[in-house]
């Protein structure tokens, strides 16, 4: 490592000068001579899912030697799922990226030092900009890094490097909820606290399977003392559906019609909270008129749920004292997800189930810091939930960051799918991907792979050099992971929680924060970020950026205060003096639109983009497989314990009737084919899927070779949940075909 790089690292590591030594060959979970966390037990939030559990990390010689769930942390109350228990183990994997790798003319990725890596990165990106214009570069960020790092990346790329197009992998999971809330409430604001799981007397889960996707949230449901009714609306008989009082196994993508019919029934039965609607909402009359044709009979025909059952559930909702509605990817990952989410919001509004304990139209987020990304990644929103197209917003941000407002783009950048299509159209030539595995997770994977291959230069910044995306990179930058750096995450209930440095990154790997600092230096824009020498500096800026926004957390004094309070939910204003533990939104019935009223948003349901037909007679559903798997298994696949808790090879759930129909036996390798590709998977005959549908967990590398690239028009979120496929036994002629 040459002197210049050492200086940058020293300068940016501040008190953690030991990072220099680590960057020169320190390994694994070695001693941290100047770590901020002394020997003892320290509490930090988990780095997998958005539940944001508190984990007690036990230290010896300033080295993390064990971990237990934190009993006092207000989120998980002493519980953790298997992923949380194994969070330290996945840091020790052999395929950690320990130094930068550059693709050489031979085609092989070979190790280089940081100086060479940074010079190459900057030379390649600047020459692309010079040749093809500033908009020929893009970045794809993530919901997996601390908010401070997201904000740094988004600011560096957009204000420093002149890269307008940037998006996050949160587009794949939460964009729908963001748009739904913004349009309905005036700001992206999930209104609940986890205490609401325990206070409802009716809980309605739509396209959500918390038993395995958010198991600690489900534990909170189980603590509910009210003997609540639990309604699950989901095509599959999921683990949650099995535990529910009522399961409505709807036909795929019939949710919008079903929810409109329930809303119509609520009106018909006189179960609308008229006072709440009159005082706190707009456009209810228009919505009521829209509902006229959504009869129970129509809903029965479309959804497959008997009219009487729909009526009963509507009545249960209308007569419930405290009804909460919870949704996640089954709603969000749809070509009409925004309107489905808003149909849920509409029912909560019209029944007055919002702002009170045990109520709410509540989207459950996916990644550990998707909520941080939604507010501070500087991708779809300008920092703090602001708008790039508003001059006053740009000026406010420029003033807080002490930069020239002309550096801030006055247009929105492209969404993820537009960036991928921008490559197809030869408009995007250079791409920087940070902590996400596009090649595995993006919809219609074959196309995504081809697009990344088409780039002039692809930079991948990741903990592991072995991801499918890193394998296609021209340059791999080795990043520290959860537990190897500081910052904050924001969980599903808007709780800002601390992340701590309890282990050393391996080899020359560095915190993303320091990599961004290096990039800024080599790019020549480090002056812009001269006040950000530590994640805590960025946190200070974020506090100011939140001021007078709905997410205002100017009352949080710093990381220590988060520690003392078990995280703090936004908003937490400096003058509030609130109880730091729990904060539900809209308790006063005021929403974030200028008039303080929520909006009813609605539309006509649209047909499924690729319905089943003679050639592809089945609908493919995708989703989470087990509580032990996380997304593309980049991390969970590294734990020997977690690997024992789920099937290692891809499998497909098929109803027994379809097994008979297509002469497929249980446990055989079969072909699953869509118009995009064909894959092999092991058959699993079961009644958890209904005839005409199959299910494949999303965690296996080949599943997205089948999916079709359809998007919600408002949120541009991919519709992973339904495309047409066929299944058959393997033919001897398949041997030589590409699969
Ligand atoms: Fe971590 Fe989520 Fe499991 Fe909690 S539920 S331990 S946050 S993965």
Task: Explain what this protein looks like in three dimensions.
The chain has 27 helices and 26 strands. It is an alpha/beta fold and 739 residues long. It has 3 domains: 101-171 and 368-569, Rossmann fold; 175-360, Dimethylsulfoxide Reductase, domain 2 (3-Layer(aba) Sandwich), CATH 3.40.228; 618-729, Barwin-like endoglucanases (Beta Barrel), CATH 2.40.40. The protein has a 7-stranded mixed β-sheet with strand order 5-4-16-15-14-6-7, with helices on one face. Helix 11 crosses helix 15 (307-319) and helix 11 (255-268) packs parallel to helix 17. The protein is globular and about 70 Å long. Mean pLDDT is 92; it is low at 12-35. Bound molecules: iron/sulfur cluster. Residues 46, 48-49, 51-53, 76, 80-81, 83-84, 215-216 line the site of iron/sulfur cluster.
Bound ligands: iron/sulfur cluster
Helix content: 25-40%
Taking pLDDT < 50 over at least 5 consecutive residues as the criterion, the unreliable ranges are 12-35
Largest sheet, described in full? 7 strands, mixed
CATH topology category name of the largest domain? Rossmann fold
State the secondary-structure class: alpha/beta
CA radius of gyration is: 25 Å
User: Number of helical segments?
Assistant: 27
Quick recap:
With 739 residues, the protein is of the alpha/beta class. It has 3 domains: 101-171 and 368-569, Rossmann fold; 175-360, Dimethylsulfoxide Reductase, domain 2 (3-Layer(aba) Sandwich); 618-729, Barwin-like endoglucanases (Beta Barrel), CATH 2.40.40.20. The protein has 27 helices and 26 strands.
């Amino acid at each position: 490592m040459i002197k210049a790089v050492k200086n940058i690292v020293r300068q940016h590591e501040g008190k953690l000068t030991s990072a220099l030594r680590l960057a020169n060959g320190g390994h694994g979970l070695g001693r941290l001579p100047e770590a901020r966390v002394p020997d003892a037990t320290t509490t930090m939030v988990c780095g997998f899912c958005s539940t944001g559990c508190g984990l007690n990390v036990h230290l010896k010689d300033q080295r993390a030697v064990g971990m237990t769930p934190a009993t006092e942390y207000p989120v998980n109350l002493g519980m953790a799922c298997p992923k949380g228990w194994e969070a330290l183990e996945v840091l020790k994997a052999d395929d950690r990226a320990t130094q930068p790798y550059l693709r050489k003319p031979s085609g092989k990725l070979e190790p280089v030092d940081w100086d060479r890596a940074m010079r190459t990165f900057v030379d390649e990106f600047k020459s692309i900009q010079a040749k093809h214009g500033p908009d020929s570069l893009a970045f794809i960020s993530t919901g997996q890094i601390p908010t401070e790092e997201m904000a740094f990346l988004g600011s560096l790329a957009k204000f420093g490097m002149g890269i307008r197009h940037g998006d996050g992998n949160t587009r794949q999971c939460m964009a729908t909820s963001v748009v739904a809330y913004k349009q309905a409430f005036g700001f992206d604001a999930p209104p609940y606290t986890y205490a609401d799981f325990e206070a409802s007397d009716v809980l309605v889960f739509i396209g959500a399977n918390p038993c395995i996707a958010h198991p600690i949230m489900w534990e909170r449901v189980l603590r509910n003392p009210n003997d609540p009714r639990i309604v699950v609306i989901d095509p599959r008989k999921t683990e949650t559906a099995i535990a529910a009082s009522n399961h409505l196994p709807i036909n795929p993508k019939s949710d919008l019609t079903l929810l409109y019919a329930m809303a119509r029934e609520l009106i018909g039965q006189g179960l609308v909270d008229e006072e709440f609607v009159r005082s706190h909402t707009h456009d209810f009359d228009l919505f009521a008129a829209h509902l006229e044709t959504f009869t129970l009979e129509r809903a029965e025909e479309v959804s497959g749920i008997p009219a009487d059952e729909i009526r009963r559930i509507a009545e249960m909702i209308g007569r419930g004292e405290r009804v909460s509605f919870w949704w996640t990817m089954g709603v969000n990952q749809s070509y009409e997800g925004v309107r489905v989410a808003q149909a849920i919001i509409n029912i909560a509004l019209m029944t007055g189930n919002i702002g009170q304990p045990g109520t709410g139209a509540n989207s459950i987020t996916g990644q550990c810091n998707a909520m941080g990304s939604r507010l501070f990644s500087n991708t779809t929103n300008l920092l703090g939930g602001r708008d790039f197209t508003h001059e006053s917003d740009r000026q406010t941000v420029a003033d807080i960051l002490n930069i020239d407002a002309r550096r801030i783009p006055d247009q929105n950048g492209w969404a993820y799918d537009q960036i991928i299509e921008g490559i197809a159209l030869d408009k995007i030539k250079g791409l920087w991907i940070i902590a996400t595995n596009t090649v595995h997770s993006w919809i219609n994977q074959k196309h995504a792979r081809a697009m990344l291959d088409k780039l002039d230069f692809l930079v991948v910044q990741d903990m592991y050099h072995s991801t499918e995306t890193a394998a296609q990179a021209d340059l791999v930058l080795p990043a520290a992971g959860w537990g190897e750096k500081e910052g904050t995450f924001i969980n599903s209930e808007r709780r800002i929680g601390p992340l701590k440095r309890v282990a050393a990154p391996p080899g020359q790997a560095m915190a993303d924060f320091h990599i961004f600092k290096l990039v800024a230096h080599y790019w020549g824009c480090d002056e812009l970020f001269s006040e950000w020498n530590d994640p805590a500096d960025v946190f200070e800026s974020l506090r100011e950026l939140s001021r007078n926004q709905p997410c205002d957390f100017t009352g949080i004094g710093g990381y220590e205060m988060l520690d003392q309070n078990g995280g703090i939910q936004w908003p937490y204003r400096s003058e509030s003096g609130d109880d730091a533990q729990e904060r539900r939104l809209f308790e006063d019935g005021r929403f974030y639109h200028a008039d303080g009223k929520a909006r009813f948003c609605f539309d006509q349901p649209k047909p499924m983009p690729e319905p089943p037909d003679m050639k592809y007679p089945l609908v493919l559903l995708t989703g989470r497989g087990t509580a032990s798997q996380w997304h593309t298994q980049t991390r969970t696949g590294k734990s020997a314990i977690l690997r024992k808790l789920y099937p290692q090879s891809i499998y497909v759930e098929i109803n027994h009737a379809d097994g008979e129909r297509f002469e497929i036996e249980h446990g055989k390798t079969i072909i699953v084919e869509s118009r995009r590709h064909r894959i092999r998977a092991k058959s699993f005959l079961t009644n958890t899927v209904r005839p005409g549908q199959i299910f494949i967990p999303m965690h296996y590398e080949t599943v997205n070779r089948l999916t079709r690239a359809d998007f919600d028009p408002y949120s541009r979120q991919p519709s992973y949940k339904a495309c047409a496929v066929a299944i058959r036994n393997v033919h001897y002629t398949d041997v030589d075909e590409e699969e």
